[in-house]
Amino acid sequence: MNLQTQSRPLSLRDVQITDKFWSKEMELVRTEVLPYQWNALNDRIPDAAPSYCMHNFRAAGRKNRERKALGDAFSEPKFTKQGWVFLPEDPQAPDDQFYGFVFQDSDFYKWIEAVGYSLTQHPDPALEALADEAIEIVCQAQLENGYLDTLYILSGTDKIFTNLRDHHELYCLGHLAEGAVAYYQATGKTRLLDAACRYADYVCCRFGAEDGKLRGYPGHEIAEMALMRLYEATGRERYCELARFFIDERGARPYYFDLEQQNAPAAPDELRYAYHQAHLPVREQNEAVGHAVRAVYLYAGMAAVAKETGDASLTAACERLWNNMVRQKLYITGGIGATHLGEAFSFPYDLPNDTAYAETCASIGLMFFARRMLELKPDRRYADEMERALYNTVLSGMSLDGKSFFYVNPLEVDPEACRRDERKFHVKPVRQKWFGCACCPPNLARLISSVGSYAYTENDSTLFVHLYPGGTVRKRLGSQKTPVRIASELPWSGNVTVSFPEGSPEFTVALRIPSWCDSYALSGAEGARQELRDGYLYLTKAWSASDRLTLTLPMEVRVRRCSPLVRENIGRVAVTRGPLVYCLESVDNGEGLFRLSLDPSAPAKTEPGTIAGENVVTVRMPGFRMRLPENESGLYPPYAVPEKDPVILRFVPYYTWANRGENEMTVWVESE
Fold it and tell me: What does the pLDDT average to over 316-344?
């Protein structure tokens, strides 16, 4: 492991994103998404599924105060239970019971994380005051021993850590830690960070290899990567040790989930709990399996621990799992998790378009994993897929006005099939206001607000530019910080400029050359030592104000095919330009998109366009529409060469689809 090429994210206080594309997205989160989601967490969105999130925290705070006053254990409320979600008989009833999904607390933690990131980019006293009030509500719910999960605070503390497989206490701890660190780093306030540390300390006391401790691990991963972040923020070694324990213990025999569920032991050759990535010890896993979000959260934690501890075997496992995922189980849009059955990875090369699950959170998790692999080693393979996920599936998850969301991101949609074919009921032709299981909207808010921490990382000598949002980056060099200005026109144009202050010390700027361009042009690097390695162009010198790097990345329209092992896409092609995947919508091309075809060698023309107020670049290409035969009887007539009419196909960026009402959509098109 080469410590000279390892890197770390910059503090978001040292990154100011100012380009038109991303500053618009981030401002949309601040002004629309965060207020909207706060209302959703408080059940104030008409006709939207209730969250109960803040209700549960308030109720737990009241119960906690009652318990302290009476010196009594909590009474246990009665629930109507449907799966893992608790629903009230009367949704308006102001009581002190727990409602919603068992992981409902995490929705607030993701919201406060997004608030923290947003405040680093745009100070907002009113938003910060609201966040402080909300944090106080949450902290009032914490028990004296540090435990903080409203499900069991309200339903009986005797159940704490009795169902790690299903009940998400450690998952909620992970999101609490992520949110607390983000808010502390943005504001310097420690109220929520102290609560997160108290909960983490309690977990450290309960879990471990020592006698009397639980040898379990999270059923839904994220605590692993979050504990590493808490460790980085506080320097407390026990959080790193706990993260490593969870990773090392996962998949060990006898299965911990068998012990807690009192199941008969598994036979030596029987693999259980692949859904939870707990079927084998992580260093023996070679295939990405099970629930896709859980998987990439785990892999991100593995990469973080591997970097901190220098664990070569863990790094090798991360590499194997990464390669399996991106070579056999990744959609062209950066979506992962092909099947709605368990929101999971399917078997290799099974990538259906019209039943794709491709959860928004899964692509966000893919970005988590990719960024941590980049911290281990700057290789454009990781940044390419991080960028693919970001500009396509992640952005697709939110409407252009920030007020509705996709949980599922298919690559082909027929609205009638979504309503009438139960195999496609999970696919929605329009975005939804909110979800009872609302993991995706706040996940989007926190990702978009922190995009700078994915775009740039650094070590003592090098600033790594993985993505190209324009803005100012303050590179730490010894005891000082040197501002580096990056101007970008991505994703619409591949023009990037980098400028420097006067009199900066010698350091290296490493610019990623994306795989979507076959060449690049660079000017302004006179006197700099240059090296192209693993897809990064390293430029080293003592920079001055007269230095101005200009990088040109050609953004040609490309027609791509799929591996012939993906049976769904045999004979079909997709259109891309730069980091963007394009699609057809029937609002532009008429109904019956399945009858359209494209000549891959046909010339492409780019044009400016507007979709729901968003300025975009569209692509036009000649194609054909299969003519419906006249006076044809029966489903199966004798074969005849189908007649086709020439048409001009209009492609729009995939992330913008379904912003102009309900209509058909497809990414893959029949090839002539």
Answer: 97
